[in-house]
């Protein structure tokens, strides 16, 4: 029986998520023999509950106003989003009066993170164990990944 399929169906409990949201660092212990399958599944699950690992908070100023419509500006060229898309996203959230200032080239998803204001940006250290069961080349590949450490 393939145990990796069992892992996919495991959802992190609410208590674990609540603790992770208040932590200063996420330490993710991973099995080196499982490739990056578990890492990607855990990252995806944390992303779905608003925890952004090893990412910076988008540099977007956003303030809801009582009137005056949408005030849209940017201090840099925007290649991933434009004023029309910003307006469409804000309308989806029933926001018709706001100030939006992009200080970096951000995506629509990053704008949504700012609008929702309930996302948490945390550093994560990936620690891989069981390295004695994989090749030295694989250990080297894992060790060179950003924010990763291998232990025996």
From TrEMBL:
Out of the domains of life, which is the source?
Eukaryota
Instruction: Using the record's annotation, list all stretches that form the GTP binding protein second domain.
Output: 68-151
**One of the record's GO molecular function terms:** GTP binding
Quote the SUPFAM superfamilies the UniProt record gives: P-loop containing nucleoside triphosphate hydrolases
InterPro entries for this protein: DRG (IPR045001), GTP-binding_2 (IPR031662), P-loop_NTPase (IPR027417)
The family database entries (PANTHER family) matched by this protein are listed as: DEVELOPMENTALLY-REGULATED GTP-BINDING PROTEIN 2
Name of this protein: GTP binding protein second domain-containing protein
Q: Which organism is it from?
A: Rhamnusium bicolor
């Amino acid at each position: 029986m393939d145990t990796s399929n069992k892992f996919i169906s495991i959802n992190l409990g609410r208590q674990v998520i609540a603790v992770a949201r208040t932590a200063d660092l996420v330490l993710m212990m991973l099995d080196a023999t499982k490739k990056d399958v578990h890492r990607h599944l855990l990252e995806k699950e944390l992303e779905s509950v608003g925890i952004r690992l090893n990412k910076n908070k988008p540099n977007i100023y956003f303030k809801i106003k009582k009137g005056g419509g949408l005030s849209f500006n940017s201090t840099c060229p925007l290649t991933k989003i434009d004023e029309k898309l910003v307006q469409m996203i804000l309308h989806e959230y029933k926001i018709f009066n706001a100030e939006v200032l992009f200080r970096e080239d951000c995506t629509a998803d990053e704008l949504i993170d700012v609008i929702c204001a309930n996302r948490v940006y945390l550093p994560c250290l990936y620690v891989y164990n069981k390295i004695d069961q994989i090749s030295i080349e694989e250990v080297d590949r894992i060790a060179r990944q950003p924010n990763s450490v291998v232990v025996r």
